[in-house]
Structure formats: structure tokens, C-alpha cells
Amino acid sequence: MPAILTVDPRSGVPIYLQIIEQIKRSIALGVLQVGEQLPTVKQLAIDLTVNPNTVARAYRDLERDQVIETAPGRGSFVRANGLTESPRVAVEIGRDALDLALREAKAVGLTQSEIRELFEAALARWFGDFKK
Amino acid sequence: MSITITNLRKYYGKSAAVDDFTLEIPSATVFGLLGPNGAGKTTTFKCMLGLARPTSGRILYDGKPLMPATFEQIAYVPERSVLYDWMTVEEHVEMNRRAFAKFSPARAFELLETFNVERQKRARALSKGMRTAVMVAMAFARNAEILVLDEPTGGLDPVNQRHVLSLMINEAAKGNSIIFSSHQIGQVERAAENIAVMDRGRLVLEGLVDDLKADRKIVEGIFPDVTFTLDGIANDPRVARSDRTERIVRLLVTGGAADIASRLSSAGAMAVRVLDLNLEDIFLYAVSPANATTDVVVRESSS
């Protein structure tokens, strides 16, 4: 786990959000498998040298989003179909990535139709030809 | 153990070192106290520990004033190490064992080894960093519920600085409270859950580090020409500050960044960005509102 999780405390992104984002990403990429146990709050806090309450906050939010589940006394685990059953999570990751790309594209002065063209080309590249 | 500081004032002659300072420090957390030199951090610590008598105000531990029994629960690392030059490190351990009932000599020697301090050395032969390490080792061997650490990494190399942070995290995980000050904002940003910023004896900012970062953003708009008007956006209560140079306007906002950004767009900005602030940026804005802008590194928001 420590190998796939790092935080950058100097970033403007809150540490608990960095932890949430990386755990979701790890699940989406299959680095963390369904049913796999996460480190305890205390262990992760010590590994990352961040406050235990900050880690606990990230775990609480992940539970609320049904990405992980915590069995008292046994630890926290990646939920079965955590990401697919909770489409909100997948949609969130996709929306954030698109937002970032659009903001950049708009900032350098591309027009809406130019962006749409780029988007469709990218879509075709990733999903193959999608003509109906 | 929680600590409640209410309307604390400490005057030295006519000058106020601490001026009407009110703060609640919850238990089981790492609390960072930040401020420029002379802001009143050390004086606040001294008042908390009964080493200085407040001019007025109250400091309560779990609702009760400082008593001898409470003192046993508080370990303190002062900014300047207090060691007896003619005594060896080992003898300092023995002195602490006699002074504090819950002090663990075994733990102290273990920590001294972590910091690579030789136990036979006399204090006068120790470097500044090693003196700090000895003070830190003594404090963390106290099994205290509250640790008050005034610049606990002064003079330490990066490896030993990280050791100190890990010790703090460990204590918090055990349910104890750490209150520490440091000029190294990166350390506070990493280890602290809550912070308070003092400036000229007063509290100027407090909160959860993560929440301060989530709330505070810079919204930047670039307009096609210099003749733009902001349509009163700068007067929005969420806008703490606005800086305008030619075609660019930068607004420091507390909450509602997305909304302010879209209002800038409607006002005719051709490019609008929301920028994150790290703790150093937030600190600089808090203590020098008039001229911090130029020091703030521009960084694209990803949240």
C-alpha cells in the first residue's frame, strides 16, 4: 500500500482529498482489488507522516461513498463492486478530469467547436470508431 | 486533554506580547501554532505552562486551571534547550526519572539512539541540533498527555526532523495532544490537523488545515482590455481581497470560488482560473494582507 499512496502536503489540495483520490484511482486501475484490506488509520498515518484524524476523515468519506467498508475490529476493505456499484464515484473522476482539460483548452483560447472536434477525435481514439 | 484559552493577555511593561487571545485546542490532535518572530507564540506557551503569569485571561485544562497534578501530564520542549552543561546526557535521563513519575528511561535511551546522541557526552559537547534532540527525547519519554513543543526541530537535519514529526504522529494516534510551533511551514502542513496563526499577539486565523485549503482560493480573471468593471464582485462578502493590475484581477475568496469564477466570466473575463493556496500562501495572506500577493505561487486548482 505505501508504494501506491503518497501525499504532497505542500500542494493546495487538502491531504484527505489526496488520499481519497488516490485510493479511488488505485481501485479503478485494479491496483487495489475488491476485498483487499487497507492499512489501518494509524498505520497509514505513520507511513505517510500525516495526522491520524486526517486519514480517518478520508476513510469516513470513502465509506460514505460506499467505496470501502469497515468491519469493527477487523479493518477496512475495498467493497465488492465499490466503484461500479457507486457510479457517482466513477462519474466524479471522469468529470474532474474533463473539467481540467476543458479549463486548459478554454484558457488558451480554443473555441467551443474546436474543443468538440478534439474531444470527438480523442473519443474515437480511445473507444474505436463510434459512428452509429 | 483539551485546552481552553480565554481572553489571554500578557503585558511586559506597556507592550502586549499576547493581546486578547482566545483559542480552543481539542484533545488527541496535532495543533500547529504559527506566526512571525515576536508574534507571541512562546509567551502563550509560557502562560499555558505556568512559567509566565498572564496579565489577564484564563487557561483551562479539561475545564480546570493548571494544578500540580496537571503539570505531571504536560511535557514541554522550550525553544532554547535547558540542559546543564557539566552533566552527561545519561545524567539528564536520571534527573528526569527522579522528577517525573511516569518518565521511562528505557524509552528515553531508545529515542536518543534514534537521534544518534551518545549518552556519555556532556551537554556542553553537544551541537545545537543534538541539544534539541535530547530535549525532544526527554519530553517524549514522559508519557505525558500533552506535549508543548516550541520549535522542536531547531538545528536538526532533515532525517531527524522527520523522526520528530513521526513521534508527534505516534502520540496523536495514541490519543495524546501535541501543540507545536515551527517556522518550517511544510512540517506544520504535513503533521498538523489544526492550526492557529498569531500576529502581533493576536489570533488572526485558525481552523483545520484541510478546510482552510478547501475554502480559500484565488480566482483570477483576464480581461480583453483595461476598461473592464467588476460589477460589484469585489464587494461580495466571500471576497476577502482583490488585486487588480491592468487586464488581470485576482480575488482571494473564502468559499464559493466556482460561483465567483462564473461571475467573472459573465463580467467579460476571457480566461478565468481558480488557483489553490498552500499553507504558506494562506499564512502569508494572514500575516501581511497588504503585500503578500507577489509571493504567492500560482498553481492550478485541481479540486
Keywords:
heterodimer; A: Arc Repressor Mutant, subunit A; 2 domains; 2 strands; B: 6-stranded mixed β-sheet; 4-stranded antiparallel β-sheet; 10 helices; 31% helix
Tell me what the structure shows:
The complex is a heterodimer of chains A (132) and B (303). In chain A, helix 1 (15-28) packs across helix 3 (52-64) and helix 2 (41-48) packs across helix 3. Chain A has 2 domains: 15-81, Orthogonal Bundle (Arc Repressor Mutant, subunit A), CATH 1.10.10.10; 84-127. Helices cover 58% and strands 6% of the residues of chain A. The model of chain A has no long low-confidence stretch (mean pLDDT 84). Chain A starts with 14 loop residues before the first helix and ends in a 5-residue tail after the last helix. The longest helix of chain A has 21 residues, at 87-107. Chain A has a two-stranded antiparallel ribbon. With 132 residues, chain A is mainly alpha-helical. Chain B is α/β, with parallel strands linked by helices. Helix content of chain B is 31%, strand content 29%. Chain B has helices at 41-48, 68-71, 89-99, 105-114, 128-140, 158-173, 185-191, 209-215, 257-266, 279-287, and strands at 3-12, 15-25, 30-34, 56-61, 64-65, 74-77, 146-150, 177-181, 194-199, 202-208, 216-222, 239-245, 248-254, 271-276. A 6-stranded mixed sheet of chain B has the order 6-7-8-3-9-10, with helices on both faces. In chain B, helix 4 (105-114) runs antiparallel to helix 5 (128-140). The radius of gyration of chain B is 23 Å and the shape is elongated. Chain B starts with a strand and ends in a 16-residue tail after the last helix.
